[in-house]
């Protein structure tokens, strides 16, 4: 039997550990070269497939691929590009089949979040809808932790560790200055509809930090919020607020909405922190500082969670194993089988139940007043940020790998997207 080649690509916002999943895919594929030939990576996600811009990962040494485990961001480039339905854009699917045929691709691994799962699900249907056999496996990734069925998402544990650490350190700073200067620190974190990342900031409460959280799941009651902030400052001398970018007013408007849209049609967000900081200043007169974690939170490989790195690699490895077992249209998942001690195993979920489905914070993870997290939430979060997995350092800086990313020779006419 002739070995089929595989297509692998990264999609959506990248993470500190998405390359660990790439490492898992490529290293596992190399162990099964009799059945699985070369792994071609799409340059800039699914766009690489449509434009026949493929990268030959076989041109990379084993050492370079292994170094992906310690390197943040997307080694092959990512994208925000969502395939339309077959009815809406048959041309794209016909092009994908042309590219897959031209390069003998029979396996499709797409590493991303909810929108990426939708793309992967559509690809998995090519055999049925267009007569081309391809096994499509989604490799989960999202700092937002909002994919359903899986206990957690690779990328989340590390961003949660970064946010919890940053909240703790910044709060120590504010505490030092509160008597005569800054009394309020506001940290804005990612999370459009789900407050998982913001929740991680709540872990500092166990260190004696007066912290408040604004979740997307809880409408902002401005009067109650400001009263609670004032109470904490009077009691502790200062207060730290962690606000999700998706925090909303009661009328449904985002605090941070800019009036623009991203490539997926989502409202472009950014600016909740200054809104909250000035809201407090106007009501109380307290001096403030604010920060937006932005790319820092998802790129901080130097502070990655060991649990997260191991799970990211395992999801890449499991995707290849599932494909070789004949599976299609599924996503490997993380199943928590024990809380204390924390243990997990690989499961699976059908893409029909994953694509375009968001997992929100359960109400019992959020405190009754809506501004904090509960003990059950802490029990969920703490194992995910456990352990350190430092990259190698050289001359005081992390030693990250940059791949050669040698292009595969094109065999088809150019394609405009």
Automatic annotation (TrEMBL):
Q: Name one GO molecular function term.
A: metal ion binding
What's a GO cellular component annotated to this UniProt protein? cytoplasm
The catalytic site is made up of 144 (proton acceptor)
Looking at the UniProt record, the site noted as Important for catalytic activity sits at 141
What is the stated purpose of this protein?
A: Catalyzes the phosphorylation of D-fructose 6-phosphate, the first committing step of glycolysis. Uses inorganic phosphate (PPi) as phosphoryl donor instead of ATP like common ATP-dependent phosphofructokinases (ATP-PFKs), which renders the reaction reversible, and can thus function both in glycolysis and gluconeogenesis. Consistently, PPi-PFK can replace the enzymes of both the forward (ATP-PFK) and reverse (fructose-bisphosphatase (FBPase)) reactions.
Q: How does it assemble?
A: Homodimer.
- What this protein is called in its record is Pyrophosphate--fructose 6-phosphate 1-phosphotransferase
Q: Where does substrate bind?
A: 142-144, 190-192, 245, 295-298
Asked whether the keyword Protease is assigned, the reply is no
The first-level EC class reads: transferase
Query: Reaction catalysed by this chain?
Result: beta-D-fructose 6-phosphate + diphosphate = beta-D-fructose 1,6-bisphosphate + phosphate + H(+)
Which residues are marked as site: Important for catalytic activity and substrate specificity? 115
Organism superkingdom = Bacteria
- Name its species: Thiocapsa rosea
Primary location group: cytoplasm
Q: Which pathway does it take part in?
A: Carbohydrate degradation; glycolysis; D-glyceraldehyde 3-phosphate and glycerone phosphate from D-glucose: step 3/4
Q: How is its activity regulated?
A: Non-allosteric.
**Which HAMAP family does the UniProt record give?**
Phosphofructokinase_II_B2 (MF_01978)
Cofactors named for this entry? Mg(2+)
Which positions in this protein are listed as binding diphosphate?
13
């Amino acid at each position: 039997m002739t070995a089929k080649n595989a297509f692998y690509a990264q999609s959506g916002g990248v993470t500190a550990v998405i390359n660990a999943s790439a490492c898992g895919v490529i290293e596992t594929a190399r162990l099964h070269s009799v059945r699985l030939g070369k792994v071609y990576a799409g340059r800039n996600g699914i766009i690489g497939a449509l434009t026949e811009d493929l990268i030959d990962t076989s041109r990379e040494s084993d050492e370079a691929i292994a170094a992906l485990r310690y390197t943040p961001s997307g080694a092959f480039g990512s994208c925000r590009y969502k395939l339309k339905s077959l009815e809406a854009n048959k041309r794209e699917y016909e092009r994908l089949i042309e590219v897959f045929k031209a390069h003998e691709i029979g396996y499709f691994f797409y590493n991303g979040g909810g929108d990426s799962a939708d793309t992967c699900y559509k690809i998995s249907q090519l055999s049925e809808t267009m007569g081309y056999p391809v096994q499509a496996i989604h490799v989960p990734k999202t700092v937002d932790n909002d994919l359903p069925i899986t206990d957690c998402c690779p990328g989340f544990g590390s961003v949660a560790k970064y946010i919890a650490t940053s909240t703790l350190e910044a709060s120590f700073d504010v505490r030092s200055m509160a008597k005569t200067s800054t009394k309020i620190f506001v940290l804005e974190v990612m999370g459009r509809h789900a407050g998982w990342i913001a929740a991680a900031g709540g872990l500092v409460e166990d260190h004696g930090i007066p912290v408040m959280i604004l979740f997307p799941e809880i409408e902002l009651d401005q009067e109650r919020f400001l009263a609670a902030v004032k109470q904490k400052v009077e009691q502790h001398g200062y207060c730290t607020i962690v606000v999700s970018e998706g925090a909303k007013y009661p009328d449904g408007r985002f605090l941070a909405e800019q009036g623009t849209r991203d490539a997926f049609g989502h409202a472009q967000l950014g600016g909740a922190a200054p809104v909250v900081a000035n809201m407090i200043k106007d009501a109380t007169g307290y001096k403030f500082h604010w920060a937006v974690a932005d790319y820092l939170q998802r790129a901080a490989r130097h502070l990655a969670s060991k649990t997260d790195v191991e799970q990211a690699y395992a999801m890449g490895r499991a995707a290849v194993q599932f494909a070789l077992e004949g599976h299609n249209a599924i996503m490997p998942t993380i199943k928590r089988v024990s809380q204390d001690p924390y243990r997990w195993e690989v499961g699976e979920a059908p893409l029909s139940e994953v694509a375009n489905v968001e997992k929100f914070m359960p109400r019992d993870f959020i405190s009754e007043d809506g501004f904090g997290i509960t003990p059950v939430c802490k029990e969920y979060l703490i194992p995910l940020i456990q352990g350190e997995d430092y990259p190698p350092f050289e001359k005081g800086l992390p030693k990250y790998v940059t791949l050669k990313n040698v292009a595969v020779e094109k065999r088809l006419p150019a394609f405009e997207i």
